[in-house]
Amino acid sequence: MPYQKLAEAILAEWRAVERQLGELGHDAADAAALEAESRRLRDEYELLFLQARAHHRPEPPPFPGGDGGASST
Protein backbone atom coordinates (compact mmCIF):
# COMPACT_ATOMS: atom_id res chain seq x y z
CA MET A 1 0.00 0.00 0.00
CA PRO A 2 1.41 3.43 -0.85
CA TYR A 3 2.63 5.42 2.13
CA GLN A 4 0.03 8.15 1.72
CA LYS A 5 -2.91 5.72 1.56
CA LEU A 6 -1.73 3.83 4.63
CA ALA A 7 -1.07 7.12 6.40
CA GLU A 8 -4.65 8.22 5.70
CA ALA A 9 -5.96 5.08 7.39
CA ILE A 10 -3.68 5.55 10.39
CA LEU A 11 -4.58 9.24 10.65
CA ALA A 12 -8.29 8.43 10.63
CA GLU A 13 -7.81 5.93 13.45
CA TRP A 14 -5.52 8.33 15.34
CA ARG A 15 -8.06 11.15 15.06
CA ALA A 16 -10.81 8.88 16.36
CA VAL A 17 -8.70 7.96 19.38
CA GLU A 18 -7.87 11.62 20.02
CA ARG A 19 -11.59 12.51 19.82
CA GLN A 20 -12.39 9.77 22.33
CA LEU A 21 -9.68 11.12 24.64
CA GLY A 22 -11.13 14.60 24.33
CA GLU A 23 -14.57 13.34 25.23
CA LEU A 24 -13.34 11.31 28.21
CA GLY A 25 -10.75 13.66 29.56
CA HIS A 26 -7.29 12.50 30.52
CA ASP A 27 -8.33 11.56 34.07
CA ALA A 28 -10.91 8.95 33.03
CA ALA A 29 -10.23 5.29 33.76
CA ASP A 30 -10.06 4.43 30.04
CA ALA A 31 -7.73 7.33 29.27
CA ALA A 32 -4.51 5.38 29.86
CA ALA A 33 -5.43 2.77 27.24
CA LEU A 34 -6.47 5.46 24.75
CA GLU A 35 -3.27 7.43 25.37
CA ALA A 36 -1.22 4.28 24.75
CA GLU A 37 -3.14 3.65 21.53
CA SER A 38 -2.57 7.25 20.46
CA ARG A 39 1.18 6.89 21.06
CA ARG A 40 1.24 3.62 19.11
CA LEU A 41 -0.55 5.22 16.16
CA ARG A 42 1.73 8.27 16.30
CA ASP A 43 4.79 6.01 16.23
CA GLU A 44 3.36 3.96 13.36
CA TYR A 45 2.58 7.14 11.44
CA GLU A 46 6.05 8.55 12.06
CA LEU A 47 7.62 5.30 10.82
CA LEU A 48 5.60 5.60 7.59
CA PHE A 49 6.73 9.18 7.22
CA LEU A 50 10.39 8.23 7.65
CA GLN A 51 10.06 5.29 5.25
CA ALA A 52 8.47 7.53 2.62
CA ARG A 53 11.30 10.03 3.00
CA ALA A 54 13.97 7.30 2.88
CA HIS A 55 12.47 5.83 -0.29
CA HIS A 56 12.00 9.26 -1.90
CA ARG A 57 8.22 8.84 -1.99
CA PRO A 58 5.66 11.59 -1.32
CA GLU A 59 5.49 12.20 2.41
CA PRO A 60 2.19 11.86 4.27
CA PRO A 61 0.79 15.14 5.56
CA PRO A 62 1.39 16.10 9.21
CA PHE A 63 -1.29 15.40 11.80
CA PRO A 64 -3.55 18.47 11.58
CA GLY A 65 -3.91 20.56 14.70
CA GLY A 66 -1.17 18.70 16.50
CA ASP A 67 2.43 19.48 17.23
CA GLY A 68 3.39 19.28 13.57
CA GLY A 69 3.32 15.49 13.41
CA ALA A 70 6.13 13.49 11.94
CA SER A 71 7.26 16.34 9.69
CA SER A 72 8.84 18.07 12.67
CA THR A 73 11.40 15.28 13.10
Count of extended strands: 0
The termini sit apart by: 23 Å
Spatial extent as radius of gyration: 13 Å
Residue-averaged pLDDT: 79
Topology overview:
Blueprint: H1 3-24, H2 31-54
Describe this structure in words.
With about 70 residues, this protein is an all-alpha fold. The protein is about 65% helix and about 0% strand. It contains two helices and no strands. It has helices at about 5-25, 30-55. The radius of gyration is 13 Å and the shape is elongated. Residues about 65-73 have low confidence and may be disordered.
Summarize this structure as a short list of keywords or feature phrases.
single chain, 73 residues, mainly alpha, 2 helices, elongated
In short:
The protein has 73 residues and is an all-alpha fold. It is built from 2 helices and no strands.
